[in-house]
Amino acid sequence: MPIHHIVLLKFKDDAPPSDVERYVAELAHLPRLDPDIDGWVSGPGVTPPFHNGDFDFGMACTLPDESSMERYMAHPAHRRLAPFLAPILERQIAFDFVVDETPAPAGTPPLEAPSVDGLRIERARAVIEASGKQVGQVKQRPNPYWAEGFVLAHREVGDSVDLVVSSSTRVGAGDPFEPVS
Known about the structure:
Blueprint: E1 3-11, H1 17-27, H2 30-33, E2 38-44, E3 57-63, H3 66-74, H4 76-79, H5 82-85, E4 89-98, H6 121-130, E5 134-141, E6 151-157, E7 160-166
């Protein structure tokens, strides 16, 4: 089964931009040099971030199976990147997972996502106001997964919509509309 390989990088604050650019340029050669790599994507993180990860750059690719993953890790094109990365790297995280290619059962309806959950607060306000409703109470709630300023939950109360918005990375418990103790 295919393996999806993801790597996130945080560069040192004092890393010279020219060294970061050189690493990124060298990294771009990897999919051309290793024939097992499929679906290569890479790029800088978005600003401001949508989640709480503090990374500067990410890459992902798909490899056909475990043996190709082993070849990829030992491939000279992969190993040659270390000298370019080591001086500029603060930390990295990598994660590999088996791609689930099982289709959803026939007739299974997709889940409907709430209209404003997961949006930045500014965008959620615009969506709510465009629907003819008003934004009601806005409560801040710590959340370990979302960057600050994203709608975690909402509820309609008459002609208004109350919102719960992420405020930090401390984990709260219970009803999102109740205060964190």
